[in-house]
Amino acid sequence: VLTLVATLGEFRMEAEGRDGDIYEAFGIAKHKMLDQLESWFADSVDTSERDAEIQSVIEGRHMIH
Question: 35-54 pLDDT, tens per residue?
């Protein structure tokens, strides 16, 4: 069992990977942590802001690099 722990101030996140091979356990834990981060990011993004940015690009007010 391998547990990854990330902290930032009072924020704490953990992800656990289980495998007989430490590298595989690390990979499993890493993917679980990335999934958590992706989920939290998606929940925290204001969709109206994103929609306004998309509309701005469609209307030619911004360029995508």
Answer: 998 888 877 777 777 788 78
The torsion of the CA quartet 55, 57, 59, 60, rounded to 10 degrees, works out to: 170
**pLDDT over threshold 60, residue 65:** no
Handedness of CA 53, 58, 59, 65 (dihedral sign): positive
Residue 34 confidence (pLDDT): 93
Question: CA-CA distance, 15 to 35, in Å (whole number)?
Answer: 10
State whether residue 31 is helix, strand or coil: helix
For 13-32, give one letter per residue: b (16+ CB within 10 A) or e: eebebeeeeeeebeebbeeb
Cα 37–Cα 18–Cα 35 angle in degrees, nearest 5: 15
pTM (two decimals):
0.63
